[in-house]
């Protein structure tokens, strides 16, 4: 049977119309689709003449079970009229059916011959299939006229035009089979000489005749039980492409059979090109759920579909025939879930690594623990290298930005002191305090800047950082080690202090210096520390005694694995977690981190003057019924 295609330049690989793996190759030939038919002959012989052979009650059941999976439209896909079932049949009827099977099958068809029953090897090593009539002579010799010789089966297969032939023998041979044949039988016979040929695959239940027989009371033989199960459940589809091939089915049966009877060794003897013959499809009960599983398998750890994964998904799409909208919705959902899970793990590692780097402790002391945590989080070395590089870059940018903010504040303070002297007016102090908050400077940093500015003022004029001329209130800014990049900053700040620009947001003036960073500390300058009792909003305008050494504050950094959280220290809200340090007097504190939908984190911490501590909070997401 063949059907022409219009307006298509191509020729199709001959495959069954109900198989989803048809592929068109573009050529200049006349386009046709060659439909491959599938034929099967299933024979089960349970009963034999009295005393000839032991009955095999499961044999007929085996053949019936095979018919069920073969004619199932979502499994074997064989047409019922193309499947012949014979039970307890005689020699003539069996030989005629075998001849008809291979004679009617065309070149591109599939012909499958299944036999469950006794097999016999005569004294010359020739194989026979026992029929309902098969007998033995009193001396135990086989009556060859009552059995079907394997040579007759081979002759019919050789004469056939069919290029895809499968033989399944679930048999117990009266002499060791195929041990004496597959390897050697008196040095003369081999299984390939009796049945195997090009495009042909021969399954045998066991290479040891003692284990091919079924046990009493079992509905199916051990071999056929797993053969049927592998197709019905789809477990034999090892590569999950929706098709069960010859080799996949053999591997599955062999694995399962040996779990029950380790000494039983199923065999597969295949000619060239037969390993990939498709025998059955895998039924899909819930296409959407199965496609979701395929998407999960196609994603990498970061939630991106791999190149090979995309090829697999395209195959699943062709197989199940869902609409494009359904496919894309499933892919977006599963990808988003995988990406979110990866990001959560990456965030936890980021917080941990950043916390270590911000403490200033040597990283080498934490390497072993970091690697253990990486493995526990399921992150690859390349993931953490990327995370760590990103954290180092962020910290460098933050340090540079913060240094520029300190320089801007120092410039404004110098100009204010130059214009008003050591005792600043309340309005100037208020403006400087507002500027401090806008820049995000701590009180301890402001104290250090103030002390440096006053120390600079005590230096000889030639060593000072800035020289100012009162004429016309024009400011001459000269920064050591720079090219005058702070000029615009000083001018703007001078105008601000002079004319009282109360409503001007200094950050919006974009006055940050650009270019090379400016060092405020000079060689030999005394180390300065902040007054631990200084709170934001309070300026210290009085001069510090030269003999007074203030107690440095402690620094507390609170990090967490989620964004959008809120932090309280001893019940006082301090905003969200992040890299900024909270400067506090030394002592014990209670830190609490909260976010809606997550369980709160709370821990006690003891701070030491002049030291920085990092609290890494991990918030666990609450179940939906507890989220509110």
TrEMBL record:
Tell me which residues make up the PEGA domain: 556-621
Q: Name one GO biological process term.
A: proteolysis
Spell out where the chain crosses the membrane.
477-499
GO molecular function, a single term: cysteine-type endopeptidase activity
Any one Pfam family here would be: Peptidase_C14
Q: What keywords are assigned to this protein?
A: Membrane, Transmembrane, Transmembrane helix
How is this protein named in the record?
Answer: Uncharacterized protein, contains caspase domain
The species this protein belongs to is Candidatus Kentrum sp. MB
Q: What is the lineage of its organism?
A: Bacteria, Pseudomonadati, Pseudomonadota, Gammaproteobacteria, Candidatus Kentrum
């Amino acid at each position: 049977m063949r059907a022409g295609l219009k307006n298509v330049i191509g020729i199709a690989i001959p495959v069954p119309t109900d198989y989803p793996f048809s592929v068109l190759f573009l050529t200049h030939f006349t386009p046709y689709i060659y439909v491959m038919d599938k034929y099967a002959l299933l024979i089960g012989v349970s009963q034999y003449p009295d005393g000839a052979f032991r009955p095999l009650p499961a044999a007929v059941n085996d053949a019936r079970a095979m018919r069920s999976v073969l004619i199932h439209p979502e499994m074997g896909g064989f047409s019922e009229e193309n499947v012949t079932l014979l039970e307890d049949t005689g020699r003539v009827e069996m030989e005629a059916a075998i001849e008809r099977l291979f004679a009617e099958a065309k070149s591109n068809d599939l012909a499958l011959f299944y036999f469950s029953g006794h097999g016999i090897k005569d004294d010359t090593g020739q194989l026979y299939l026992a029929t309902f009539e098969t007998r033995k002579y009193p001396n135990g010799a086989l009556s060859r006229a009552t059995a079907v010789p394997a040579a007759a089966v081979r002759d019919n297969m050789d004469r056939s035009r069919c290029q895809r032939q499968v033989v399944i023998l679930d048999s117990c041979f009266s002499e060791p089979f195929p041990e004496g044949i597959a390897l050697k039988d008196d040095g003369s016979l081999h299984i390939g000489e009796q049945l195997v040929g090009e495009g042909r695959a021969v399954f045998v239940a066991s290479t040891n005749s003692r284990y091919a027989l079924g046990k009493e009371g079992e509905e199916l033989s051990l071999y056929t039980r797993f053969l049927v199960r592998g197709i019905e459940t789809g477990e034999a589809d090892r590569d999950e492409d929706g098709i069960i091939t010859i080799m996949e089915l053999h591997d599955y049966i062999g694995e399962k059979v040996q779990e029950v009877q380790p000494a039983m060794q199923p065999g597969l003897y295949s000619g060239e090109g037969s390993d990939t013959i498709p025998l059955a499809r895998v039924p899909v009960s819930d296409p959407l759920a199965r496609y979701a599983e395929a998407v999960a398998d196609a994603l990498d750890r970061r939630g991106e579909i791999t190149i090979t994964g995309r090829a697999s998904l395209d195959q699943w799409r062709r197989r199940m025939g869902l609409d494009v909208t359904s496919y894309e919705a499933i892919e977006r959902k599963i990808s988003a879930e995988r990406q979110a899970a990866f990001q959560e793990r990456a965030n936890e590692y980021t917080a941990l690594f950043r916390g270590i780097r911000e403490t200033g402790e040597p990283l080498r002391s934490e390497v072993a623990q970091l690697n253990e945590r990486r493995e526990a989080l399921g992150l690859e070395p390349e993931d953490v290298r990327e995370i760590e590089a990103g954290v180092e870059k962020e910290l460098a940018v933050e340090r540079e930005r913060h240094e520029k903010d300190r320089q801007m504040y120092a410039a404004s303070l110098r100009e204010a002191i130059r214009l008003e002297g050591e005792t600043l007016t309340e309005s100037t102090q208020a403006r400087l305090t507002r500027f401090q908050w806008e820049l995000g400077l701590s009180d301890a940093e402001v104290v250090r800047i103030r002390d440096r500015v006053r120390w600079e003022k005590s230096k000889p004029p030639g060593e000072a950082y800035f020289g100012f001329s009162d004429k016309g209130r024009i400011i001459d800014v000269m920064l050591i080690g720079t090219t005058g990049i702070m000029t615009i900053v000083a001018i703007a700040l001078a105008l601000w202090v002079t004319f009282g620009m109360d409503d001007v947001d200094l950050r919006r003036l974009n006055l940050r210096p650009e270019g090379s960073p400016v060092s405020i500390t000079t060689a030999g300058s005394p180390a300065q520390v902040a007054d631990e009792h200084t709170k934001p909003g309070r300026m210290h305008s009085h001069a510090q005694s030269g003999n007074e050494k203030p107690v440095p504050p402690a620094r507390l950094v609170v990090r967490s694995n989620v964004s959008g959280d809120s932090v309280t220290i001893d019940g006082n809200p301090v905003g969200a977690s992040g890299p900024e340090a909270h400067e506090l007097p030394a002592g014990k504190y209670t830190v609490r981190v909260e976010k809606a939908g997550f369980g709160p984190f709370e821990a006690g911490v003891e701070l030491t003057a002049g030291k920085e501590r990092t609290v890494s909070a991990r918030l666990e997401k609450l179940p939906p019924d507890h989220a509110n």
